[in-house]
Specification:
ATP binding, mainly alpha, nucleotide-binding, ATP-binding protein, ATP-binding
């Protein structure tokens, strides 16, 4: 099992949600997961909810 750990510092600003999603998409694409895969969509949704 491969483990990947990365971090992004965000400010308490609603505009940061979009930046966090873009950052997550780039990390997901870099790991070989296609953007339209259910896993990628779920991860992006999770990021949006956490920010």
């Amino acid at each position: 099992m491969q483990v990947l750990q990365v971090q992004l510092e965000i400010r308490p600003d609603p505009a940061e949600v979009g930046r966090a999603r873009r950052w997550a998409r780039s990390r997901i694409a870099g790991s070989g997961i296609e953007a339209d895969e259910p896993l990628a969509e779920t991860l992006i949704l999770l990021i949006s909810e956490l920010v």
